[in-house]
Amino acid sequence: MSGISAWLDGLGLGNYATIFVENAIDLDVLPDLNETDLERLGVALGHRKRILRAIAALPRDASPPASSDVATPESETERRHLTVLFCDIVGSTELAVQLDPEDLSGVIRRFQATCTIIITHNGGYVARLMGDGILAYFGYPHAHEDDAESAVRAGLDLVAKVGQLLLPSNEPLKVRVGIATGLVIVRPTIGERSAQEQAVFGETPNLADRLQSLAPPNSVVIAKSTRDLLGEGFVCEQLGSYEIKGISEPVTVCRITGERAVESRFDARRRSAKLTRFVGRQHELQQLLESWAQAKEGDGQVVLLCGEPGIGKSRIAVALFDLITGDPHITMRIQCSSHHTRSPFYPVIRQLSRAAGFEREDGPEVKLEKLEAMLSSAGQASLANAALFAALLSIPSAGRYPAVELTPQRRKDLTIAALIRYLGDLAGTQPVLFICEDAHWIDPTTIE
């Protein structure tokens, strides 16, 4: 591998090596390149920025080292399975022409801050801020079984939240999001400023970058490698197969149009595959049925179902559902998350949003109407707490309810009391089967 090829490969941009070599650009010429030169070579905007930053970080008195000069011992490298997200502003070149540099800088800062908050909130790792682009990893530095789901959920949130940022012309900012999953090589960081750019090597980051360029404005596009991990928790639109430069095989591409209202991670996965016949665990299932019979008679029961991951806890719950289908009852399920162990009421908020039938495009007024309809089904006592529920779900009430000044502690206490009252009101109409999935990830406030 030539010096320039190795250098580009170290940036994850090895696909440009042939173009550089054909134009006689070697390590000596590299420091003389500028934005215009790279654009004439056909280098994408985000990649131009990446290359120029890497050039600027080079020692002034030395040429960039070949890969052998900076190679990390093989014993320190690590193969990881990552989901990579690339988010880019639509029309950034036009914005750079239209806006005053100071205004453009403000837009970029708000964009980067918003993206960082959303990605981090969803369990991702912001690997690189590239002005108009963001590169993030899910599954690094810590892997989780739902990294692909978290990345897609972050992508949908990015489209929604960034779309609320306004340009000086009062037009909304638009973004594209590309997501891919695959094996990569992770190496210990080298240096400081360029460390994150050299941390991950492989096809996956490049594919995520290419996919975002295929995405329509304000949309999330994913590779088949990510789609295969999602189950049926999201609504996917097949866009077909694409020949992507630098990728040997055609890539099947999907567009994510929304998230389905599934009650648990197990439900999301089992929709895409038929369950096998339930075998064994008859003793445990009989215990659950006996507890359910007592609960129906008014003697409430609590059962802890615990065991190693994958042993079949959720499968037993599904078997119970199937057996009590004919019994009039209400099922309430909250799903805890490994990414939100410190997010107050996280599983409760998701359950209430799902029960009320909220959609991503719903405005505050629509959400308040759906919330009140849900609470009224439990009774007038619960409906009287609509203001507390609206605050819990972060829905602006715009004067719909009387304003009450409360301390944070007092608001939390009243909210917990309202939630308990709501559950009690439901139990007054029909027996309630309340399930807390993955309770080992529950947040302290939900425990209260």
Instruction: Compute the separation of the termini in Å.
Output: 60 Å
Largest sheet features: 8 strands, mixed
Strand content: 15-25%
Secondary structure: helix percent:
40-55%
Count every beta strand, where a strand is a DSSP E run of 2 or more residues.
Answer: 10
Shape: globular
Low-confidence stretches: 59-75, 190-198
Per DSSP, the total helix count is: 19
Classification by helices and strands: alpha+beta
Radius of gyration: 26 Å
Pattern of helices and strands: HHHHHEHHEEHEEHEHEEHHHEHHHHHEH
What integer is the average pLDDT?
A: 82
Please describe what this structure looks like:
It is globular, with a radius of gyration of 26 Å. It has helices spanning 3-10, 17-22, 35-40, 45-56, 67-70, 92-98, 101-121, 147-162, 203-214, 224-227, 265-270, 282-296, 313-323, 346-356, 364-378, 380-383, 386-392, 408-429, 444-447; strands spanning 78-89, 125-129, 133-138, 175-186, 200-201, 219-223, 234-242, 251-259, 330-335, 432-437. The strands form two sheets. Strands 1, 2, 3, 4, 5, 6, 7 and 8 form an eight-stranded mixed β-sheet that branches. A two-stranded parallel sheet has the order 9-10. The chain has 19 helices and ten strands.
